[in-house]
Specification:
single chain, 47% helix, 432 residues, Rossmann fold, 15 strands, eight-stranded mixed beta sheet, globular, alpha/beta, seven-stranded parallel beta sheet
Amino acid sequence: MPATKKLRAAKAAAIRHDVKDLSQAAEGQLRIEWAAREMPVTRLIAERFRRQRPLAGLRVAACLHVTTETANLALALQAGGAELVLCASNPLSTQDDVAAALVALHQIPVYARKGEDNATYYRHINQALDCAPHLTMDDGADLVATLHKGRKELLPGVLGGTEETTTGVVRLRSLAAAGRLRYPIIAVNEADTKHLFDNRYGTGQSTLDGITRATNVLWAGKRVVVAGYGWCGRGVALRARGMGAQVIVTEIAPIPALEAVMDGFQVMPMIEAARVGDIFITVTGGVNAINIEHLQAMKDGAILANSGHFNVEINIKALDDLAERKRRVRDLVDEYTLPGGRRIHLLADGRLVNLAAAEGHPASVMDMSFANQALAAEHLAKSRGQLEPKVYPVPKELDQEVGTLKLRALGVAIDTLTPEQRRYLGSWEGGT
């Protein structure tokens, strides 16, 4: 083994980790660099962080999807001086070569293996928490929940945290409403430069990508049922229509349902959609959006996929109970045969199909999401001791900074207000 490789191997061995195969590090590094091409905002923040070191001396426990884009966030945090430990926020989302590269080439402790079981998943979360973090970064709130339920002795040392996704924000607001949240958390998901782009364009493209990779299905002419018309549902519906599908939306809230109608989609209850749909995609953030009565109504060959954070949006237990036979027919495709011979196909065990069967969101949209994560971490570091234990939005100035940097990176210029326009907008006296 060449001397350089021996040195790297020795360094990797000294870093606490549980990854699949460190020999994949070189391949993972190439993919990290490829993603970096589409992440100019994160790169600019990393360059400033390297000069200013705003996170120096702070330990960060991050429970995120271990992907090429997350790796670029991790490197930005490291450049800012943070001592980072990373674990996976979903058992099927880890890119093993990326995990290997972070350990072997960047000396970042990582606890993540694609396909890990539930026990290993939570063991990894606890191993990340063993660093006694000053800051937490979460995607779905499993790390924060574990910290509040089982590792309470660490809470006094936590300055703040961030949350990446809708489901996690809902959980954290529930924790705060119960008076049990012990430190301030910034809801990165609420930033305009996150949910307007990541949730809509990222989820829309990556969800269809994952389903296509898993099934090789032709979208044109299919009846695609999208459960939920939030920002993620909007993106999925838009992309499915763009591929030639006939899109049906199901909703529980009147305003999003009305919006879907005016966007040109059919809207109906799930029990009606179940009878005609070919492909079903859940993005509700809730539980049992597809339930036993819907499964019983579906036609032969229906395909079920979930792009909500947790694998609870499809009632998998009901599907198991209904089925007379289950078999794996393709990677990540399970065929359930019901009485009478009807077959229903579940993708990726009901987990996030865009990460389990594909590579997750394109790097270009994750650039803005993770820029918000980095700036929110810096904001928490500067605000230590000044914030109450509540869930906060991303400060508007940080959101605007991310948007400005992204436009600059894209080579797009916009207008600015003239002094006259500022005076007019600040006055009440003008009228007809």
